[in-house]
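Continuing from the previous page of notes. For each protein in this section, the sequence appears first, followed by its structure tokens. Read the first protein now.
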Amino acid sequence: MVDYGGESPPSRSAVAAPNFRIGGGGGNGRHAGYGYTEGSLAIPLGERGGVQIDALGGISQENGFAGSAVHLFTRDPEKGAIGAYASYLYGNGSYKDGGDYEQGVSQAKVGVEGQLYLDRVTLEGLAGVNWDSLDDSAGLFAEGRANWYATDNFKVNAGLRYADAFGGDRTEVVGGAEYLTQFTTGTAASIFGDVAFDVGGSDRGGSDVTAMGSLLFHFGTGNKSLIRRDREDYMPTYLGRDAGDLPRSVNVVARPGAPGAPELLGPPERRDRPARPERAERTACQDRTARRERRGRQGRRVRTDRPDRQAPERQHCTREIHRGSLP
């Protein structure tokens, strides 16, 4: 009987067995910090095929986001993998779209992904077309990385990433690392970190350096090292990085338009809104009283045997203010 050192026997299938990962992470995106929880489920489709479903939800600034992705692939654990990829990500904030403001933003991706296994090196890539609701048009995206496994449970990677979305394009140098520790119960946990440096493009605004990290728990295929899990269990996930690239959301308030017209949206710092009618009435009342009192002080002798002619109006202003009709 072959001894695998306490690990599960090697698999020749695209997905060794149904397995899932769940965890959470966060970082500083292009415009703000963000945090999320995520999960992935991989299922074999015969001996050479597999399907993986990813899901993610989180918060950034004052808005939330959620997304999902699906991988349909074929794989030989000793050679490599190739398949189709599709994802959808939605942010529920308010976003500036030219001179208008759009409630919610969407991004969809469709592409091809692949991996090549060379001893302790794995070359991986993803490329395709993306669409976003702000541009309402399609652009290209691509990412390629070289992973080197220093040990069976620790890897580092580096590569390039390109995206044309949300009104600009950008090219980034990316790199990361992951470490996995196994438990005696057949489960495992891994810590992952990733950083990106913007090196070119016409992207409008945002940080040139972004970073993210996550903690994942693995279930379903017994005791396995990181290199085997990457080649026998699942495909890479991309939703966490995509969430960090969402555009900046803004706070907007409704501004009244013409009678019968829909309310307009704009940032709260806009100062072209008309004054409140009750405030204008209060100011006019106080100004009239103050002018009359100044005229009396500037040369008109005050008769003590006559009632104060300004008293009724002054009392009216005071009474209305205290009553609350003139706040």
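Done with the first. The second protein uses the same format. Note its length before scrolling.
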Amino acid sequence: MSPEALDKIPFAPSSADYSCFGGGYDASLAPITDPGRRINMRRAATKDAEPRDYVLPRLGRGKVGGLYSTGGVGKSWLALELSILVACGRDIPQLWQDELIPQGKVLYLSLEDAADEIEPRIRSIAKEAEGFSENELDDLVENLRIQDVGGGVWPIRLVGEGEGRSKVSERWVQAITDVGKGCRLIIIDTLRRAWQGDENSSSECELVVSALEKIAKNTQAAVLVLHHTSKAAALNGGGGEFLIGRGSSVLGDHLRWGWTLAGPNADDLEALGCNVRDQIQLAKRQIAVAQDAKLSYGPKSGQRWLWRAKGGVLVRRQEEEIKADIKRSCAASTRKGADEYREGQGKW
């Protein structure tokens, strides 16, 4: 049998196999339904696989990934910078300095922050980038759609909306699919605002992951969801482990790609030489540690140091650069305090 003929063999039994039901094939009576596309073993064993189309390194089209962090660390900032990277090619955070990121359309659903918060962030990013070129601005206008859904303006319910908790909301899956068609990347910020179920219920979490996978499959975009890490992980400095997301482990286990963003822990502070109070406090304010905690389609590449530049923009720094920044900033702060004291404006 030729490979072409093999491709045409259906997985589901033919109508003849259902003769016991008294006549022709009736899908409503069939005990077996088609569970999916049958793998062509001849082709799989003899032909090289098609190269994956990655939207972000190791996050392929049609797949779901997650960005996890505690509140206030900067995951929305980083997600916005990543959306700009895909939309126009300008790499602000420089997480993947040696990787080519193909450009394309991006849909950013901002369910927490409204336009009056997002627009100043975009201006801060533009200033940090020392402005966008005309071509980059044209690409941003054409490719990046940020939907202000903050404050419940558009109350997305991926699971259970008008249908009970035990069902995926096909209405919302279809609505996001319609808006996201043609996109390479869809960002949902945050998952909790798109779903009001029980985070600790594995069955409910299975449903919300299923909804996200449907959106990814329908649009062939990579879907990136932002989610909070657990309070225990935040207290224990576990920001680099992907499975410390708040709620059921399903929210980490079933995603194909996961990055975490956390403040520096004790080991990080020691590596940076922060051993006095001023240095430690400055480091905790200014530094975020990004790490590829889960990659299903490639090896991990380790953590990155991100420095909070003016306005809150996250930019990558090497360890030695951060050490120098901390020393310089602390020295400037000490000099300012001494000057104020001499002028009678400060108190020790």
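What the second structure shows: Residues 1-30, 336-342 have pLDDT under 50 and may be disordered. The radius of gyration is 25 Å. We return to this in next week's lecture.
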